[in-house]
Amino acid sequence: MNLPESPMQKIVVGKIMNNSVVSVDSSVSATDAAKMMEDTDVGAVIILENGSPIGIVTDRDFAIKITAHSYPIDTPVRRIMSAPLISVDSSSDIWEASDLMSARNVRKLPVIDDDKVVGIITSSDIVKYIADH
Is residue 6 pLDDT above 70, yes or no? Predict the structure, then answer.
């Protein structure tokens, strides 16, 4: 679906992304990652290997992969992460991010600049921004 021309088409991800991002090493247990998500009130953690982002684990991954597949709760997050990591950079347009989310059927996109996670943008962030403007 092509959206009509609008001043919002010039809004970059960096302006509306959430800077609060939790990241963990790929060897961390699913239990520890879930506790971090609960403690920091986030719906996803970015998985790192040698300091570089390689995947993401969302609250949905816990529900589907741990519960449905009966993985032990001490399973390393690398086993339940979604990879390869689908991401955008902070200068990406929000419409590009929205199209990517739709095409890849994801609701959360890490924002990565120069191989460093600088934020996360969710479908809810985009909808809220559009509703407010």
Answer: no
